[in-house]
Design a protein that fits this description.
Keywords: Phosphoprotein. InterPro entries: CheY-like_superfamily, HATPase_C_sf, HATPase_dom, His_kinase_dom, HisK_dim/P_dom, HisK_dim/P_sf, Sig_transdc_His_kin-like_C, Sig_transdc_resp-reg_receiver. It is an enzyme of class 2 (transferase). One of its GO terms (molecular function) is phosphorelay sensor kinase activity. This is histidine kinase. By secondary structure, the chain is of the alpha/beta class. It has three domains: 135 residues, Rossmann fold, CATH 3.40.50; 53 residues; 147 residues, Histidine kinase-like ATPase, C-terminal domain (Heat Shock Protein 90). It is 47% helix and 20% strand. A five-stranded parallel β-sheet has the order 2-1-3-4-5, with helices on both faces. A hairpin with a 3-residue loop joins strand 11 and strand 12. The longest helix is centred in the middle third of the chain and has 45 residues. The chain is elongated and about 100 Å long. The relative contact order is 0.07.
Length: 368
Amino acid sequence: MDNNNEQNEFTILLVDDREENLIALEDMLEKEGRTFLKAASGNEALKAVLKNNDIGLIMLDVQMPGMDGFEVARILKSNPKTKHISIIFVTAINKEEQYVLKGFEEGAVDYLQKPLDVHITRAKVNVFEHLYFYQHKLAGSLVTIGKVNQQLERFLYTVSHDLKSPLAGIAMIISALEIELDTIEREELESRMQLLSRASMHLTQMVDSMLDYSRKSYEQQTRELVDIEELVRDTARLLFPPDNINIRIEGHLPTIITRKLKLQQVFQNLIGNAIKYNDKKQGSIEIGATDQHDRYVFYVKDNGPGLQEKDKEGLFMLFRTGNAVSRGESSTGIGLNLLKMIVSEQGGKIWVESEPGAGSTFYFEWQK
C-alpha cells in the first residue's frame, strides 16, 4: 500500500466462478469513487491481487471449482504483502458453525450469505470502505510522524554540537578570571568581560535562530543579507582559538542573501575542527571562496595532521570519525554528517582534499 499519496479510489475485487454473479454484485455495489476487478477462479484472484497493490476489499465466493475461497484466503493471509486486505466471504452454504469458524480461521472478516440482501451488502461494504480510508490516513500519519521524529533528532544533534564550542570558550574565560581575579589589570578585565558579553550575545542569537528553524519548514526559514566575511570573523573569534593558531581570510568573501544559521553552522564546524585537530606548533587556518557563476565554492584549509585515504572514505557518514587526535575533546562523528545534509539542502556538495602530515582542505558549494 502506498502511504505517500492521497487515496481517493476504493478498489474491490469480486471473485465468483459465475459471470452473472459478478455482474449482479458490481451493479449492486457500484458507486462513485469505486473501481472493480473481477476474477472467475481462485488462481485468477491471486494473480489480480499480485498485479494490483491498492485493493481494499475482496468479495470472495467460497464454493468454486479447483481452488475454493478458503484456500485463496489462506494464501493471501500468509503473504505479508496481502495479509492486510479485508475479505468478505460470499457463500450459499448454510451458516453452520463449522463453516463460519473455518472462514474466520482462514482470515475472513465477515460473511454474506446468498441470495444477497442488497441493503445489508451495501452497508457492510460501506463500513469496510470507510475503514480502508481510515487505515490509509493512519499509515500516512505514521510516516509523517517518523519524518518529524528524524528532524527532531537532527535538531537536537545540531543544538548540542554547535553550542558546545562557544559554551566551552565562555567556561574557559570564566575559569581564568576566577584564578586571576586578584591580579588582573582593569583594562584586561574589561576586555575579557566584553568578550564574554559578545560570546553570550552570540549564543543567544544562535539559540533564537535554532528555535526559529525548529518551528519552520525549510521553505519558511528566513533568508537575509549576510556579510560572509563578517560572519566568518565573528565565528572564528567566538571559537576562542589558542594563541598558536593563526586564522586568516584569503582574498574577499562575498555578501549574499541566504539562510544565515545554516551557513554559520558549516563554517563553525569546519573552523572548529581545524582548530581542534591541529597538531602543529604554529597552526594555520585559511578561509576563502571562488565564484562559480550560480554558486560559490568556499574552503577551509589547515596545516594539521591531514587524513589517510582510508579515513576519507565515509568521513561524512553518521558516527564515522577519523583517527586524528583532538585537543582533549571527544568526537561523535555527528558534525560532518550534519554539514553534508545542510549543504545538500542548498543543492551543493562538500568534499575534502588532504595529504597526511600536510593538512586538509574542506570545500563546500553554496548557491547564490
